Amino acid sequence: MRNWLPTFCFVAIGLAIGFGIGYATSSLNIIFDSPLVTAHASVHSDSFTKVLTEIGNLDAVESVVGRCGSTEDFQRKSLAAEDLAIRKIQEATVGSTLDPPLDVARARLATRWAIIGEKRNDIALKARSEETTQQLLQTAGWRDPSAKHMREILSRWDAEAGVCTSAGIKGKQSR
Amino acid sequence: MKRIAKYGMLVLAAMLVGFPLGYFYSQRTVGKGSNILSQTYALSEYETLANLQYKQADPLHASRAQLDLLNFMQQLQAKQKIEIPRALDYDRARVIMRLALLEENAGNKEKSKQYILEAQESLKDADHKTYSEEQLRTFVRRLMPNLIFEIFDCCNRIIKGRPSWSRL
User: I need a labelling partner for A11 at 20 to 30 A (CA). Which of A22, A28, A93, B56 fits?
Assistant: First the structure.
């Protein structure tokens, strides 16, 4: 019995180490494929998987854009990532039967740029972004395609989610 | 020396056995969680955009967005293992009911009835109950027909720190 004890211990140690390495390897693979971490779907994925990954990525980025306390640099990077995700979705939908309303996503993005323009007192950026929003919402068939309307929707949305845009902050202050 | 080599080989052999066990266990646990996350994120964004169209766009664009969302849900179900099938069935029923209302408003009563039947089927898949047409209309108006949906919606908001699209 005593002769078996060290053998048993070494087998148990080996199993535990092997299990841990296997678990970590697989977990890291999964985590790096997650929409929270991965930038884009694999080039070998089919068009549906690409749309699924990119649209998940878009949602992940959108959920952090405009968070209170985030720096302008972070917001600009997030919006650039959002823009890239939208373009990737557009590319992925070419080979699929899907046609998500990307004009609305682009209009939302343009509205967020307008908010940044307003914060920086960049009137040109604000005006250009609001014009883009209006054009996109007209294409999307909105009954009220004004940038103001989209801004109201975003402010309400951000306020409920606990994130803040300049409009959201103003809204809270006025309350 | 011989003993060290023997135990070294033992540890190595056990590691080779342990590696696939850990790998597949992670696929079943972390992998499942990741699938839930990616499906939730993708569906949430698709629904956000499609439902903005439903509420803000003209009937043609609204209907197109709902049909596209339905197509996405069907492809998702066909191509991937759905981790929260009941939530997807509720969501699909809601999308179909919205299509029914759009068709009804356009004066296409027959098509609207057909969609209502489809929505009833989808909800039957979710909780094995048959809902009346009136209940389905309330379902679309109120959006959260029962506790399960509320729990899912609540979890979604907690995980992601964002509101339900239904509040848009």
Answer: A28
